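User: Good morning. I'm curious how iron/sulfur cluster would be positioned relative to this chain. Could you predict the structure with it bound?
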Amino acid sequence: MTTPTTDAPAVREEVLEAVGLTKHFPVSRRLGSLLTRTRPTVHAVDDVHLTLRRGQVTALVGESGSGKSTVARLLAQLYPRTAGTVRLHGEPVTVRGGRPFRAYARRVQLIFQDPFASLNPVHTVRYHLTRALRIHGNAGRTAADLDAALAKLLERVSLTPAERYLDKFPHELSGGQRQRVAIARALGADPDVLLADEPVSMLDVSIRLGVLNLLRDLKERLHLAILYITHDIASARYFADETLVMYAGRLVEGGDSETVTQSPAHPYTRLLIDSAPDPDRITGDAVAAGRERGDGEPPSLIRPPAGCRFHPRCPAAMPRCTTDLPPRLEVGDRPDHWAACWLYDPATVAAAREVNR
Ligand code: SF4
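Assistant: Good morning! Here's the predicted structure, ligand included:
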């Protein structure tokens, strides 16, 4: 009999998986396109593969309009998919409203960017949390059970004592407290997965860290699988175990957060990191260097560029980048670090070595 080794890295349980996730939104036709048969579509998300694991935070990073929030809504089953599969605990799931949706939402909860818009201003914290507990069958049988469940939810998000917050309206809370209530409401379902769509981007900088620490604490204490959607790659390094980078509807790089943020492989990831605010870099030379790095506008997703979608901005683009879509290629520095970039094609790497010899 084989004795399991204790120093092997623990393989975390897969909870939610997306395979080939794709979403194209049809757009209304202009007069000029009425005679053509094809209806224009926005290629919001194309062929996204990702796995969320218990007790792990996966960051999905990219610019506005890159498709990150659409991925979260597809995983939450708020939009129908154009193609691809979503698996929950290994089982393919497609739900459209009603009881199946409620059963799915019990396992997979979405936290929105704007905590003020996601809470009803005419209802108290007690109302929001009670409703979540009742809908998902976690309110218990008696008033005492409900009170205990409410206190536990608020304690989990560090809003204590509960009596101080339960009868407050959203406008009586700070932005950070509102987001904590929104997180408590999501926890009312007792989910396995939290999909957090830019959960701190609308909060003051001074309280962002507190909310991220809370989510990390929940990951550890409740073994939640968390998808953390952000445009701030620096926060991904701090908060996430794994980081995936998205550009123009496609994933372009992935790996453990330390590697992706400290040794970025894809030219777009390098651009994202270089674009993070840093007063030391705001000089004329830096602006010129930025142009060389590939600063510019993301492409139209109605007619995305052929080949690599980053090629119109990429300072390293080669002829094949304009025609051939790069697959995920191993970068080779760490296990699981990959980039969808022809620079990591073994033939390109060998040719570059030959030139440098
Ligand atoms: Fe640049 Fe080509 Fe890599 Fe795309 S595939 S990021 S265009 S080098």
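DSSP finds 13 helices and twelve strands in the chain. The domain at 14-25+41-281+293-356 is CATH 3.40.50.300 (Rossmann fold).
Let me know if you'd like a different ligand tried.
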